[in-house]
Amino acid sequence: MDSEFDTAFDAAAEVIRDRLIAVRRELHEVVEIGLDLPRTQQILLRELDGLGLEISTGSSLSSVTAVLRGGRPGPVVLLRGDMDGLPITEATGLPFASTSGAMHACGHDLHMAGVLGAVRLLVDRREELPGTVVFMFQPGEEGQAGGRIMIDEGVLDAAGERPVAAYAIHVDSATPRGQLVTREGAMMASASALRLTLHGTGGHAAFPQLGIDPVPVAAQLILAVQAFAARRLPATDQAVISITRLSSDSEASNVLAATVSLEANIRTLSTATLHTVREQLPALLTGIAEAHGCRLDAEFIASYPVTYNDPAETREVLAVLDELVGIERVTRLEAPSMASEDFSYVLQEVPGALVFVGAAPESGPMPLHSEHAVFDDEVLPLQASVLAELAWRRLARG
User: Fold this and answer.
1) For residue 181, what are the domain limits?
2) Strands in the chain per DSSP E
3) Which DSSP string do the residues of 196-231 spell out, in sequence order?
4) Residue 181 — φ and ψ, nearest 5°?
5) CA–CA separation, 393 vs 398, rounded Å?
6) How far apart are CA 178 and CA 2, in angstroms?
7) Residues with a known catalytic role
8) Domain count, the chain
9) What are the tens digits of pLDDT across the range 80-124?
10) Is residue 215 a part of any domain in this protein?
11) Are residues 118 and 229 in the same domain?
C-alpha cells in the first residue's frame, strides 16, 4: 500500500500495519467498561513486554504507564490512549464483534492500538530519541474520570519530571478516513450534572387541592432549565443544558407523587459560564419550587472540565500535520464540540493538544456511541505515525 505521507516513521508504520490491526481487533472483542479492565490490561502488558520500557500499573484502576527513555538528553512528552468501552450491545455484525454486552463504540480500541504503534516506532529509534516519552493507557474515560485518578496516582511524574507537552488522538467514525481535525483553545466542552429532588406532600389524585403536587411544579422547572441558557448566558459563550432523567415516587395512578427526581446534564465552554450556571440555576429553580410550596434539594456534580488545546502547542501541532499529510487533509475547527473528554484533566496540568482523525468506514459515516458504529482500522498506521512524529518533534524542540 502507498505511504500515507513521507516522514521518518511512515515506512515503519506500514510494516507493523497488520500487527496493529490484529491487536485492535483482539481488544475490540474483549472490551470491558469502567475502571477495572483486567483482560484489556493484560493484552497491553503483553504487547509492551520485552521492549525495554519502565512499566507500572495502577493501584485503584487497571491503568498501564510505560516510560521510554531515549538515548539522547531531552525533556518528557506524554501520549495518551484510553482503554474502556461502553455498556452497549454491539450490532455491527463484524467477525470480531464483541458479544459481552459491552462495545468499543467510541474507538478506544483504536486509541490503544495507535499508541502501541507509536511505542514500537519510537522504541526502534530509541538511541536517537532526544528525551523521554510517557505512554499513558487509561481506563474510565467514559464518565469515571480515569485520567484524574491516574494523575492522582502519579502518571505525570512517572519519568521523574513533568512532561512539557501531552498529545492524544481520538478517532471519529463520522469523518473521512485520514482527515485530521483540531483547533486552538477550547476543543471540547466541560460536563457537569445538577441533581434535583422536588418535595411536595403527595395525596389522593381526586383531591389535589388538599396537598402539594410536585409534578406540575417539576414541569415548570424543566421549562425554566430550557430557558436558562437562552436568557441568562451570552450568545457568544453558550451552554447546552438538558434534562436527562425524570421520575416520581408514585407507583399508582390514583396517588399524587410526594417527590419528583430530575437530573440535568450541563455542557459549557468556559469556567466563567460554568460558574454562572452553578450559582444561578439552582437559585432560580429553588425560587420556583418555593413559590409553589415545594422544597427543592439541588446537588451540583462537577465532572470533566473543558478540553483546552494550548494555543502555542496546537499551532506547532498544526504545522506538523500540514507538513505530514498536506493542508487539505487538516481541518481547523471553527467551533468546539459540546461533547467532553477526560484528557481535559491532563491538559489542565500540561500544555498539549487533542486531535481527531477520521476513521469512517467505506460504507459511510457512523455516529459514535452507536451499537452500529464501525471504524476503519486501516487508519492505524497514520495514528501511530502522527503520535510518534508529534512526540519526536516536541522533544527535539527541547
Assistant:
1) 10-186+307-397
2) 54-57, 64-69, 72-82, 130-138, 165-172, 180-182, 185-188, 190-199, 203-204, 240-248, 255-256, 259-268, 295-302, 307-309, 330-332, 352-358
3) EEEE---EETT-GGGS--HHHHHHHHHHHHHHHHHH
4) -135, 130
5) 9
6) 13
7) 82, 142
8) 2
9) 999 999 999 999 999 999 998 999 999 999 999 999 999 999 999
10) yes
11) no
Cell numbers of 87, please?
A: 455498556
57 and 159 inside one domain = yes
| Same domain, yes or no: 56 and 121 | yes
Could you say which of 302, 318, 352 is where a domain stops?
A: 302
The answer to whether the pTM exceeds 0.90 is yes
Cα–Cα distance, 168 to 217 (Å, whole number):
45
Given 281, 302, 323, which residue is the final one in a domain? 302
- Domain contains 4: no
pLDDT per residue as tens digits for the range 129-152 = 999 999 999 999 999 999 999 999
**160-207 pLDDT, tens digit each:** 999 999 999 999 999 999 999 999 999 999 999 999 999 999 999 999
Phi, psi for 380 (deg, rounded to 5): -60, -45
CB burial string 228-267: b at 16+ within 10 A, e below? bbeeebeeeebbebebeeeebebeeeeebbbbbbbbbbbb
